[in-house]
Design the sequence.
């Protein structure tokens, strides 16, 4: 994921959660730097990773309100990630249906006279 797009999504989620104005300003400052041409190729694995990076910024370390807003968003993202992991695990644990070839071979095996 592109860092700029991820930061825009994070800012929107923080705004939806009713984050403090200083939190939004901190994200806007990082977003402005991510908009520079030199930062265009920057990528991140997930919104969760970006949020954790924001939690380590000087602004978050010096202002507990900013840090608290980011921790709340991190908890939301972790909850969503856990739900996705559970769904994937459930899908992987379901037995795969057998192919027609399997049933044909089984039928042929049953029809052959035992010697």
Sequence:
């Amino acid at each position: 994921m592109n860092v700029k797009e991820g930061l825009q999504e994070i800012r929107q989620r923080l705004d939806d959660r009713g984050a403090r104005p200083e939190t939004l300003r901190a994200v806007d400052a990082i977003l402005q730097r991510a908009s520079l041409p030199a930062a265009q190729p920057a990528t991140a694995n997930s919104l969760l990773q970006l949020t954790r990076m924001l939690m380590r910024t000087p602004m978050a370390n010096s202002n507990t309100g900013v840090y608290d807003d980011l921790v709340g968003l991190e908890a939301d993202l972790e909850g969503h990630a856990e739900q996705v992991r559970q769904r994937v695990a459930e899908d992987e644990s379901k037995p795969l249906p057998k192919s027609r070839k399997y049933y044909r071979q089984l039928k042929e095996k049953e029809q052959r006279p035992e010697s």
Observations:
- Residues 3-111 form one domain.
- The chain has one domain: 3-111.
- The radius of gyration is 25 Å.
- The mean pLDDT is 91.
